[in-house]
Amino acid sequence: MTQLLRVQNFVVSSDGFGAGEGQSLERPFGHADPATMMAWAGATASWPNRTDPGGSRGLDDYFTRDFSHNIGAEIMGAHKFSPHRGPWENHEWQGWWGDEPPFHTPVFVMTHHPRPSFTLSDTTFHFVDGSPAEVLEQAREAAQGRDVRLGGGATVVREFLDADLVDTLHVAVAPVELGAGARLWTSPEELHERFHCDVVPSPSGVTHHLFWRR
Amino acid sequence: MTQLLRVQNFVVSSDGFGAGEGQSLERPFGHADPATMMAWAGATASWPNRTDPGGSRGLDDYFTRDFSHNIGAEIMGAHKFSPHRGPWENHEWQGWWGDEPPFHTPVFVMTHHPRPSFTLSDTTFHFVDGSPAEVLEQAREAAQGRDVRLGGGATVVREFLDADLVDTLHVAVAPVELGAGARLWTSPEELHERFHCDVVPSPSGVTHHLFWRR
């Protein structure tokens, strides 16, 4: 079986930004509101952070529950892990996700600043410095035959696209304009030369773009 | 966790038939051509019977790979298992699927005619006589906390719908007219009073109807 590198449930604004400007401890997505960007997933029965019963089991639920399907490791950028820039001043910060991170696999955080690995529940965070191809090789080995999820942010997805390492992408375009921030694309058409694409509008208002290699 | 009863990847013709007329050993779907009805799934990368590499990884692939997601048992009608009618003359017939059936769980075949259970690879077939509610109870217990798939055919799906036991349905409407056969519905609107519904056209030509309880 091929081990794919997959982008899953990555949300961008209608103008192509994965996050807004001005990331801080209080605002992990900068001026973007993550609740609005992720509303389509949050309304589904499979949303892992759901506290009330119910939730939809339609199209958006398929994408939400597919998030971890056959995934054995995640790669993310340093800014997805932390608002901090530069060398780690201490190791108190352990990510935005509390004691039960939603990954349940090894996670490789790309950073130039070394830090020891640590484990929270069934997720272990490793801090790695290297090219996209090198980090992917480490993540593939950790995934033990399963696929690797490329978790973002937008800048990291673009780096892996530039290195032609991405096999499939699911990008949900939310009906929100951000105007500025971390850009994934100017238009999804930028990917059409290298990828097949299905464009699937959801009743929730997002449009799912599904790309796979030609 | 609730254990759902789910209809998954059930294909009907544009006029609402799950299979044609005149089932026989050579034609499990009667005058319907299963290759045409299932073409949307057969073209995907996740199709379990795929012999050549490749295959699409777009919308239809999500449904194909979701077939076994969190499923712990299947319920099927006798006509999905065999073209035979009446008491079993012998036990040589072991289904249409060869030595590696695609279920990988216990399967409960609804029949008035007793027969001993048997196992092929990781699928065990049980033959059970009872009401839909009784059979569902057996399947739920066997599923050990996971969901139960209702595999069809159309008549069996209708029986479980009439007993109000179905939680979710994914029905793929193929661009094929059959004119006669085992009918699931005259129109999908028959279910709208009891179920929410997303209608999702696929570039492959099928239209996916996703229903979940109101």
Automatic annotation (TrEMBL), chains A, B:
Q: Which residues cross the membrane?
A: none
Positions of the Bacterial bifunctional deaminase-reductase C-terminal domain = 69-192
Domain of life of the organism encoding this protein: Bacteria
**Descriptive protein name:** Dihydrofolate reductase family protein
